[in-house]
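DATA SHEET
Item: assembly model
Revision: 1
Owner: S.N.
Input lines:
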Amino acid sequence: MSSAMTMNWPAVRAIYRFEMGRFWRTAGQSILAPVISTTLYFVVFGAAIGSRVSAVDGVPYGLFIVPGLIMLSLLTQSISNASFGIYFPRFAGTIYEILSAPISPLEVVLGFVGAAASKSILIGLIILATSALFVPLRIDHPFWMIGFLLLTAVTFSLFGFVIGLWADGFEKLQLVPLLVVTPLTFLGGSFYAIGMLPPFWHAVSLLNPVVYLISGFRWAFFGKADVNIAISLGMTALCLVICLGLVTYIFRTGYRLKS
Amino acid sequence: MPIISISQLSKTYTSGFTALRGIDLAIEPGEIFALLGPNGAGKSTLINIVCGIVTPSSGTVLVDGHDIARDYRAARRTIGLVPQELTTDAFETVLNTVSFSRGLFGLRPDPGHIERILRALSLWDKRDSRLMTLSGGMKRRVLIAKALSHEPRVLFLDEPTAGVDVELRQDMWRLVRALRQQGVTVILTTHYIEEAEEMADRIGVIRRGEIILVEEKAALMRKLGRKQLTLHLQQPITAVPPELEDYGLALAGDGRELVYTYDTRAERTGITGLLTGLAASGIRFNDLHTEQSSLEDIFVGLVREDGARA
């Protein structure tokens, strides 16, 4: 068998551990930040505003926002972890070591994206645990919940990886998350059901891919969704395939990696 | 079989700049090969292509018989690279970053091997220090430790002694000699030509993306080295006597020295005739010494000569 066909697992493990090392080095900040922000969301949306909002589809508002809160962090954390993870070695010049090592593109992606997804899933679980302090949690389909969590974390970590390769400055690194992903997440039904919108805006919302992620994730919690669960799953899978395609293209062409 | 075979290797960057033009080069196992060339000659591009960092435009490179494109894993496992720039992960510790490199090359952790490398490079006491706290010289040692972490059979040193102090430079050359004894092939580029002169078995000179010379160092020195004979005169003279004009003598040291340049390869060096002629002219001397051209003289001569032809 050609050596090119044997996976270099020690390399995947080395990249994964190296990337996770950064998370644990700043564990206080990594863990405390999502706990504090979740608490703030619950104080503002749950207690202050939520007490004046009636139940949504029979789910109390405080509980209703839990999947949206997790998704919000999952998307932003996946993108920022993965984009920073690959951008920093490019910026510092240490990428030479990855490029000159006997590693396939698949192994590089597994290491970086695996670590980024792991970090954001951990943060998602921390938010879930923090939420349990404020509302009585209910998860109707725990396996689907884990499935959506994994799928979304991997998809958006891949997307972050692409941004980290595309960016040629720290400003660009923030551009897409700030101008595209955060608005799409807020407008994607994190804090409301899109069924609550007037028909025109409801239709517009369906163009937003994040709607399908949040809807599917919320269905896993409460068994109720804005859009059909199969369509949610299909759209999430489509996002994954698009990101995989982009990453494959980048490695094939050596875009931004090799001159 | 050469450990590295480079055949018709060319590289033109997307900017249109051609860095390499049809390079052919074979590096033998266990040798120390010095690649000399002015800035921008293509040294780093050549190294970066062999190591997988830059994609060639055409040509082939085999490392220990493995094609760097088709069988890149086997080719790259053979190679350790110490880059020119001091690129390190500021927040990592020495031990972690060196262990990380070993993992990248697909090897299981071997704390004993890592400890030996760190001790050999005087880094063991700094193993738990973060890289950002180290001096430039120490960071250079870390880069070497990283390159050696996976026990490579070929080591590329791209300008390894640029900007390092004398102590580290000497440590580094001791290490290179020790590696050669273990059978490691070392390919280095350097601006310190005296180091190439001292260390290398063979020397290649690259200019404008072309290898203009590859030669055994000793043979190169013999072949291209000119010698100068300096005679220290008892009495100063104001002009070379007409009967000695054919020797092309030069007066130096306020007329107290006569300098004769001759070719060691020539059948007759002319020294005997010159000394006889001096005696006949009544010129006496009380001392003499000879000097051989340094590699630097040869290198400068070569690059100039080639530049004049271009």
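QC remark: The domain at 226-292 of chain B is CATH 3.30.70 (Alpha-Beta Plaits).
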